[in-house]
Amino acid sequence: MTESTAQAPQFISYDDVYSAFTPSDAVATLRQTLQDGFNPANDQSRSAIPVENGEFLIMPSTTSSAFGIKLLSVAPPGYQDNLPRIQGSYVLFDGTSLSPKALIDGIAITNLRTPAVSISCTYDFFADEDATSPLRVAIFGTGPQGRAHAATVESTFPQRDCSITFSSRTEPDALDDSYRWAQAGSAEAREATRCADLILCTTTAAEPIVQRNDVADNAVIVAVGSHSPDARELSTDLVAASHVIVEDMEATLREGGDIIQPLNEGAIKKDDLLTFADVVSGKVTIKRDRPIVFKFTGMPWEDLALAEAIADKLASQH
Fold first, then answer.
1. Which Pfam families does UniProt cross-reference here (predicted)?
2. pTM of the model as a whole
3. Which strand (E) or helix (H) includes residue 200?
């Protein structure tokens, strides 16, 4: 038996990830990946396998320089409040040697990736605006993803005065004093949503929580909370009245109930949908004459892009 000469993979903890990479770094990495010509349509499919007390997600992806897989467990809401709903790891391989390169905390990757997708797609709608004007943000959901979205907005637009209001059914614990909270459905929550430039839906809701009359004509709305055909956060009338961006045609039409249901109802047409890659690469330009909706469910390439960038940055520091 020959002795292995492969180097042991680097273990990258949650704290290691955030010491090396800021939310704005994650946004820039995803945007650069698409601007360099990566086509999400060539990505691998995500698998969801039912397990005894939840779901097992398997997300593989590959590029010319690396390949990897994210393995996550997802618990139903309220299953064990003392544990995160999402747990797991990312295994990164070197594309040349084919050796395992890093084992990365899966929650850190997910908490960086998800809001980075939201903001990398919508970045151009806010980056060139008057830096002295406030950026009004309404976030539905106060869990880890809601809070990660707030941190990503602030990290990506440091020149803007970000006014962030969270809406949820119950008051969250230990919310930063710089944020406001409003009871979902209250007059305060409705006003914050109506005045918002950017609306981020990060909930586990199965039925629409945002309607067309709830938002301004120039609002940008991101729906990220649901990832099944029978669940959605946005109403049909809102989607039908908006410019609609999808993460990827195939992935969205497989999992994105916010888009699948209006399509099935005949309220929108597939030909009218724009893609994340085309928007970020500048192949299409969207007029700000009505609301803009971006729907995504998460794709493996996004995790791989961040995992490789994080591992390379940490390796360069040693």
1. OCD_Mu_crystall (PF02423)
2. 0.93
3. strand 198-201
